[in-house]
Structure formats: structure tokens, C-alpha cells
């Protein structure tokens, strides 16, 4: 029998709660839903007023994965949707997850949450900048930490404040609050800094995804600042063998992992790690929403 539950006055159907999604740890769908209910206060500010794209993995990371931007079949009438600028479909709309009922409805689909750098209320006007630091083996997150520290200082020189989070996969993401700026301008600035990083650290950094050059280096992906691109939302679970999370980390943790001999697994954060971290550190990305920290993009 498919259980019904009520969340803040909305009736939801939650299905297949005993289904194992991450066989390595035996993590079930019910545990996944419990995770999102637990971290709702942390993840919701990063989802509100942003059109959401879903990477769905209903049979776990070893099953079929498919990316969807359109509202999925069966989307409740009470779910907010918003028009989004798409050249191929000027009438396109996407879901907006803005409260606990909509979060739990989406989580029941078994998804990664991906959001753009702009809000639904101001399409293509970015309020944050992002760098995705992606290591090419044998490079690991440790090399990403070295690059992150360089970029933090470079951004600081332009009076911009960077925050770090794990990608939930192999690398790191840097998030930078900015005063609302056209996405094209933010993209151009981010690319310029990626080029500068490659010039400053040629043995470590690439600004282009050139596979032949990737081994042992960190690709500074600046492309996710384009209006049409999205990034894994803070606190989203990822479709990986382990139930890893794209979660914020402190700069002290990044600095420690940049030291010789550091353990790359120190920045592998799993679902069960997040509630204790929130209790210990609070929401490390809360200041992303502080107007006084939003800097002007040169």
C-alpha cells in the first residue's frame, strides 16, 4: 500500500519507502526522504524562487538517470511553476520548490536538485557566481583545494567573498554572492579569472575541458554562470554509489586538505554527516543571502 502523509496541510503520496537506492550503504528511499525533511530549513533558501531542473535516478545510481527541466507528469496543481527563457520553447515553464511540501514531493521522485545562478523573479540576472572545480585523475579534491584557495584570494582582490562546498562527486564548488548582474557579464568575468588561474598555476589548472590535458589537473569550469546552465544545489544528494551530498565546508577544512599528505576522503560528506554538521557549524552558506556581502562584478 502506498502511504499517504500530510506535510504542512498538503497531502502527499510517498512510494517505495523500503526500496534500496544506494546498495553500498543500504540506504533506502525512506531514509532519503527523512534526510530532506531533516535538512529542509537549510536547503529551501537555496531552492526558493529558482527554477529547478531534476536529475532523476528512481532506481538508484546504477539504474537509468535522466535530466528533466519540464514539470514531470503528475505534478500537483499546487506546485508553483515559472516561465523560463528557452530559445527552443518560449512557453517553457519549470517547477519552483519553495516549501516543505514541494520539497518532499520532489524528493519522492528521487532527484538531484539543480538550480541556475539567477532567480525566477529576475531571469538571466545573476545574484551569485559559481566555479566548479573538477579534478582529472590522478588529481583529487586535494588539488581542488589548492585551486580554491587561489581563487578565494583572487576574488577577494575584487572585493568578492567566496564560499566553498563539496560537489558531492569528485571536486569542489565555489559560490560568490554578487549584486544582480546580467549572466553574460558574470560569465565573462568568471572565464577571465579561470584563464588567470591557469596562467598563475599552469601545472595545476585548466580553463578549458580539454580531455587530453586533463590528467593531474583541475578544470576550472566557469560555464555554469551562463543563464541556461545550472549547478547542483547546496545540500542535494547526488546519484552516486554512496549517498554523498553537495555540502558546504569551512575554509579551515579546505586549507587542511590543501596540505601535503592530507586525506581526500576528509571532504567526502554523506547523508548522515549533514545533520551533525548543521548542529556543529550552523548553515555555512547562510551569508550567501546577506546583501552586504554581495559584491559588484568588475
Automatic annotation (TrEMBL):
Keyword hit for Ligase: yes
Keyword NADP assigned: no
InterPro entries per the UniProt record, alphabetical: LigD_pol_dom, MtLigD_Pol-like, NHEJ_LigD
UniProt keyword list: Ligase
GO molecular function, one term: DNA ligase (ATP) activity
DNA ligase D polymerase domain location: 28-260
EC primary class: ligase
Protein EC: 6.5.1.1
Sequence segments annotated as region (Disordered): 71-90
Gene3D superfamilies per the UniProt record, alphabetical: DNA primase, PRIM domain
PANTHER family per UniProt: BIFUNCTIONAL NON-HOMOLOGOUS END JOINING PROTEIN LIGD
Name this protein carries in UniProt: Non-homologous end-joining DNA ligase
Organism of provenance: Streptomyces zaomyceticus
Amino acid at each position: 500500500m502506498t502511504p499517504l502523509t500530510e506535510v504542512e496541510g498538503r497531502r502527499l503520496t510517498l512510494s517505495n519507502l523500503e526500496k534500496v537506492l544506494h546498495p553500498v550503504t543500504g540506504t533506502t528511499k525512506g531514509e532519503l526522504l527523512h534526510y530532506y525533511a531533516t535538512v529542509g530549513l537549510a536547503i529551501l533558501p537555496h531552492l526558493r524562487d529558482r527554477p529547478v531542473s531534476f536529475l532523476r535516478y528512481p532506481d538508484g545510481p546504477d539504474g537509468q538517470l535522466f535530466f528533466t527541466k519540464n514539470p514531470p507528469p503528475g505534478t500537483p496543481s499546487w506546485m508553483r511553476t515559472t516561465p523560463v527563457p528557452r530559445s527552443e520553447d518560449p512557453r517553457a515553464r519549470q517547477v519552483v520548490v519553495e516549501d516543505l511540501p514541494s520539497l518532499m514531493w520532489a524528493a519522492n521522485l528521487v532527484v538531484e536538485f539543480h538550480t541556475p545562478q539567477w532567480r525566477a523573479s529576475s531571469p538571466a540576472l545573476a545574484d551569485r557566481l559559481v566555479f566548479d572545480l573538477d579534478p582529472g585523475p590522478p588529481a583529487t579534491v586535494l588539488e581542488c583545494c589548492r585551486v580554491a584557495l587561489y581563487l578565494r584570494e583572487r576574488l577577494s582582490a575584487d572585493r568578492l567573498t567566496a564560499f566553498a562546498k563539496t560537489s558531492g562527486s569528485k571536486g569542489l564548488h565555489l559560490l560568490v554572492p554578487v549584486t544582480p548582474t546580467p549572466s553574460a557579464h558574470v560569465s565573462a568575468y568568471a572565464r577571465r579569472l579561470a584563464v588567470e588561474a591557469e596562467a598563475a598555476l599552469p601545472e595545476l589548472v585548466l580553463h578549458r575541458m580539454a580531455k587530453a590535458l586533463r590528467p593531474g589537473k583541475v578544470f576550472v569550469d566557469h560555464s555554469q554562470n551562463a543563464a541556461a546552465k545550472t549547478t547542483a544545489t547546496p545540500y542535494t544528494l547526488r546519484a552516486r554509489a554512496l549517498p554523498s551530498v553537495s555540502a558546504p565546508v569551512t575554509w579551515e577544512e579546505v586549507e587542511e586538505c590543501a596540505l601535503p599528505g592530507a586525506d581526500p576522503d576528509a571532504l567526502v560528506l554523506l547523508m548522515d554527516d549533514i545533520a551533525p554538521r548543521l548542529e556543529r557549524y550552523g548553515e555555512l552558506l547562510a551569508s550567501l543571502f546577506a546583501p552586504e556581502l554581495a559584491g559588484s562584478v568588475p
